[in-house]
Automatic annotation (TrEMBL):
InterPro entries: GRDP-like
Pfam families: GRDP-like
Annotated protein name in UniProt: Uncharacterized protein
Residue segments, region Disordered: 1-35
Sequence ranges of Polar residues compositional bias: 15-29
Length: 672
């Protein structure tokens, strides 16, 4: 085979394995897996990447896991120690664990904003770490932000406060790799003092918590700077669900009003955001959130300007927006027109945004007065279950991957992630769902910021977003599609954790995708880098990643969940019979019994129908994303790409072991 290069477009190496071929030709289900072959190259579409040019590497995954350990330690300290032990405000003492953590994450996001507004660029990495690296709670917010890559990319282009952060590129990941183990990092005394000078808070996040009692909020009516308490009686603090504060101008300020003011500011802003009057000569130099970056164009200025023009000629908005008029008067006029109700504003401008998906995306960015288009409190909280999974595997332990025998699990994850990207090149409108090992590598890749965006455009010709708010039934069905598509393309099972495949049968939709995949499927199946090494973690890590699974209240949702639970029971009974008949590996079956079923126990974030609220159900604490419905990935599972087939995903049964992902059922087969 020719020498692989980063940008080679010669015939790619196949990912398929010798021991798993077409249905009926696989090895005995009770035979041990073959020796793991470390891949000599990775394929993404027509590109072949040598290991040094891989999109992620072993050192980066290890550093990322160390960072997750630091996040886990921080959460444990906040939740398990008393307020007195941590010198936290007395009011925290009566909070339950979830409520206390939600409050603390709110403080972390506040500190992240303070850092973003003051951070400086240094070309030398060591110098930047010494002078600019933020505390661990701020790193946690930054980490969650990067895991929303389309928003992170667009905000870097659109939001003035984000310009320096964009210039830092992949500095988040390279910094923690350079440090080695972030848990052992100690800032210099000069760094501690400089942090305090810039932000007014202590460097240590726990020490700073008692200091962050209020946040400055600008009254959208008279521009008075108000000091809003973070927490208050009646849940009316800034970090609580019923935030409300009355200005001296007698106007009541809520999150809705702050969100409307933020939208109006973006609508009338130019590339001179400090201007106090509407400048129609420059008004198109600023952009509405969710309109500048698209899947196929990371900076579509033309499309963004069209949306803004459409809004500016909207009769409801055009009267108050007049040339040279004071922006404060414009904002006050529009606030009065909508009676301070964000839903009213959305109703009046929806027609100007045209596409429903665009409306959903735009509205989700306007939930408060922060400059970020991502509601970062909820984004951090949603990562909790994934961190717990990594901790449960013990992957976050400092010496866990020191041995080559264990290290191969991460090498396998890297190979599978590159294959996952390759799978995406085959069906541009399909939502594919990662497993835990793939998601770890994917998160690591996203931490590279602009480099992630650039590599997506180069190798996949589109920017792949990482949607972390997908309704559970939709996610389960999409995972069915992923299993079948993976088996069809690579001729190896997708899951090896022992789970019966979750989700409903897709039927005719799968036939369209499997036909397309069969046309583009790699030939000459000689490699086996996608088969798991003989290590128990390699099997467990192929369980579906569910941290982006959200629950939407409603009878239909519960009915679909119960239907999937019934189908899961049937599949387990089917697999038990296959084990007795010698058609399925007993170890694989038992692995499936050792953990919860996928997509039946979603992360406990509850969203009312239509309007998604990125909130933990912990009493008064929330951070509510008004208007942000549970949108799915680009194209979702429909369009020209969806997936379905009675074809089956492989061998003798189950979703794991030597049996493959299906055969007469399971990951494909005749139905369930």
């Amino acid at each position: 085979m020719p020498t692989a290069t980063a940008d080679s477009k010669e015939a790619p190496p196949s990912y398929s394995a010798n021991s798993v071929g077409p249905a009926g030709s696989q090895s005995s289900p009770n035979e041990p897996p073959p020796a793991y072959h470390v891949p000599h190259a990775y394929k993404i579409g027509t590109y072949i990447l040598s290991p040094p040019n891989a999109v992620v590497n072993l050192e980066e995954l290890k550093a990322h896991l160390a960072l997750l350990r630091a996040f886990k330690t921080l959460r444990t300290n906040v939740q398990n120690k008393t307020a007195a032990e941590l010198n936290l405000p007395v009011v925290v003492e009566n909070m339950d664990e979830k409520k206390r953590w939600s409050w603390f994450v709110g403080l972390a996001v506040e500190r992240f904003q303070l850092w973003v507004e003051t951070v400086k660029y240094h070309s030398d990495l060591s110098e930047w770490i010494e002078k600019e690296l933020p505390p661990i709670d701020v790193l946690m917010a930054w980490h969650a932000y990067t895991l929303n890559p389309m928003w992170y990319h667009e905000d870097g282009l659109r939001v003035p406060a984000m310009k320096t952060l964009r210039s830092l590129g992949d500095r988040l990941l390279t910094s923690i790799v350079h440090i080695g183990d972030i848990n052992l990092y100690s800032p210099t005394e000069d760094r501690i003092q400089e942090w305090r000078k810039r932000t007014g808070t202590a460097f240590d996040p726990l020490e700073s918590a008692p200091q962050l009692t209020h946040r400055t909020v600008e009254c959208p009516y008279c521009w008075t700077q108000l000091s809003a308490p973070m927490i208050a009686s009646g849940d009316t603090g800034y970090l609580q669900t019923k935030f409300s504060i009355t200005c001296k101008c007698n106007k009541k300020i809520t999150k809705d009003i702050l969100a409307i003011a933020k939208f109006i500011k973006d609508l009338v802003s130019s590339d001179h955001p400090s201007s106090l009057s509407v400048d129609f000569d420059r008004i198109n130099d600023g952009y509405i959130a969710g309109t500048l970056t698209t899947i196929t164009d990371p900076q579509n200025d033309t499309a963004a300007r069209k949306v803004k023009t459409s809004l500016l000629v909207n009769r409801f908005l055009s009267d108050p927006i007049q040339p040279k008029r004071d922006i404060r008067d414009t904002r006050a006029d529009i606030l009065k027109r909508v009676d301070g109700d964000l839903a009213n504003l959305q109703k009046h401008i929806s027609i100007s945004l045209m596409l429903p998906r665009r409306r959903t995306r735009v509205f989700s960015a306007y939930v408060d007065d922060r400059p970020f288009s991502v509601e970062l409190v909820s984004a951090v909280l949603r990562q909790g279950s994934f961190i717990d999974k990594m901790h449960g595997f013990a992957w976050t332990e400092p010496t866990y991957f020191d041995d080559d025998v264990d290290e191969v699990v991460l090498i396998h994850a890297i190979a599978r992630y590159h294959a996952f990207l390759d799978l995406m090149t085959s069906a541009s409108t399909t939502l594919f769902v990662p497993t835990l090992d793939i998601d770890l590598a994917w998160h690591t890749h996203q931490m590279k910021g602009k480099q992630y965006s650039d590599q997506c455009m180069k190798y996949l010709k589109r920017l792949i977003d990482h949607d972390d708010k997908i309704e559970e039934n939709h996610l389960a069905n999409a995972f069915d599609i992923t299993c079948r598509a993976w088996q069809q393309r690579f001729n190896v099972p997708y899951m090896h954790c022992g789970c019966p495949l979750p989700g409903d049968t897709i039927g005719q939709k799968l036939a369209k995708l499997t036909h397309r995949l069969s046309i583009s499927r790699p030939s000459d199946p000689t490699g086996n880098s996608l088969l798991p090494p003989a290590h128990p973690d390699a099997f467990s890590a192929t369980h579906p990643s569910e941290h982006n699974c959200v629950e939407v209240d409603g009878l239909s949702t519960e009915a679909r969940r119960q239907a999937r639970l019934h189908k899961l029971k049937q599949r387990r009974e089917r697999d038990a019979k296959r084990v007795e008949q010698g058609k399925m590996d007993r170890a694989a079956y038992e692995r499936g019994a050792a953990h919860d079923a996928a997509f039946l126990y979603p992360v406990p974030f509850f969203y009312p129908p239509v309007i998604a609220c990125g909130a933990v159900g912990v009493g008064g604490f929330a951070s509510c994303g008004l208007g942000a419905s549970c949108a799915v990935g680009a194209g979702a599972c429909g369009g020209g790409g969806a997936c379905g087939s009675g074809g089956g995903c492989g061998g003798g049964g189950g979703c794991g072991g030597g049996g493959g992902c299906g055969g007469g059922g399971g990951c494909g087969g005749g139905g369930s």
